[in-house]
């Protein structure tokens, strides 16, 4: 594992969520592929979401 995936896998045994919200022109499909390749975490604590998806779910949750 590398310097990025090791902490994510190690912290997956805690009640902790890591959410990456994409804003801008970043390589977001690469981040989604990265998420899919994280080796067997105890809890799937890393999620990638676009800003638009995040806003949609936020408004749906808050009812506004």
From TrEMBL:
One of its GO terms (cellular component) is nucleus. One of its GO terms (biological process) is protein ubiquitination. InterPro entries: Copine_C, E3_ligase/Copine_domain. GO terms for molecular function: ubiquitin-protein transferase activity. It holds the Pfam family Copine. It comes from the Eukaryota. Residues 1-37 form the Copine C-terminal domain. This is Copine C-terminal domain-containing protein.
